[in-house]
Amino acid sequence: MAASWFKEVPGAVELAVLVQPRASRTRVVGEHDGMLKLQLAAPPVDGEANAALLEFLAKQLGVPKRQVTLVAGDASRRKRVRVEGLGAAAVEAVMSLGT
């Protein structure tokens, strides 16, 4: 069964992410309420948490940062992130390792 926190769109995958800023370290926690929960060490100030989120996802998924964009949720803990050039199976395999 596919995880409910992502969906495949033409040429990309969109992730539904729940972010917990100011954590002790940046890591994938698991699935929570149909979203991928991530803890970020960065504070939610001046876009630092959003930048840390995009950088962390790019590194985890092995894609350049330019392929990871924030689609929705700029000032919210609930965010939608688009990852260009990856299929759903690749995203699920990589992100599920941390859960």
Automatic annotation (TrEMBL):
One Pfam family linked to the record: DUF167
InterPro entries xrefs: DUF167, YggU-like_sf
Domain of life: Bacteria
Family annotation (HAMAP family): UPF0235
Family: Belongs to the UPF0235 family.
Cited NCBIfam families: DUF167 family protein
Protein name, entry field: UPF0235 protein F0U60_33595
